[in-house]
Specification:
By secondary structure, the chain is mainly α. It is 55% helix and 5% strand. The strands form 2 sheets. A two-stranded antiparallel ribbon has the order 1-2. A hairpin with a 6-residue loop joins strand 3 (32-33) and strand 4. The termini are far apart. The model is unreliable at 4-8 and 127-152 (pLDDT under 50).
Length: 152
């Protein structure tokens, strides 16, 4: 059995890990909105304006997301797709001017979260949602813990 697997299948992410990864993807890809438009961008686009350093820094954070997927036993096929998204984001993002525009349009981290959710069978319209009732452990369900971790 490989790392993170239970009987040949990827393990589920805890709600905390899932939220943390989705938050990172949101921060990198679409945290900010261009005023007067629906266009969103994140730190990847902003830091990508700093030649060399910005794209490398955001790629390291993106690789953390991929690393968590690996740690939880995600299939090699999905890991390769996630690494391809991250690699394309880094390679094209490093090209002056063209890469800066690309960084604002390509949402590689959001794509990776979507791949992760699809692989784990998590059907979510909004991966940043605090609502995770179908993902609560039986112990949390029996104690009435919910979205905020408080009893209620």
């Amino acid at each position: 059995m490989k790392r993170g697997e239970v009987a040949g299948h990827a393990t589920r992410l805890s709600p905390g890990v899932e939220r943390r990864l989705a938050w990172l993807a949101h921060l990198l890809d679409d945290r900010f909105r261009l005023p007067g438009t629906n266009m969103r961008f994140g730190l990847d686009g902003v830091l990508g304006l700093v030649p060399g350093v910005g794209d490398t820094a955001t790629t390291l954070v993106a690789l953390y997301i991929v690393g968590e997927a690996w740690r939880h036993g995600i299939s090699k096929r999905v890991l390769v797709q996630m690494l391809a998204n991250t690699g394309v984001d880094w390679l094209v993002g490093a090209i002056p001017l063209v890469g800066d525009i690309f960084d604002f349009a390509f949402k590689g981290n959001r794509r990776n979260i979507a791949l992760l959710h699809r692989e784990l069978g998590i059907a979510k319209a909004d991966p940043l949602s605090d609502r995770v009732p179908d993902r609560l452990s039986p112990a949390m369900r029996s104690t009435g813990e919910g979205r905020s971790g408080r009893r209620g």
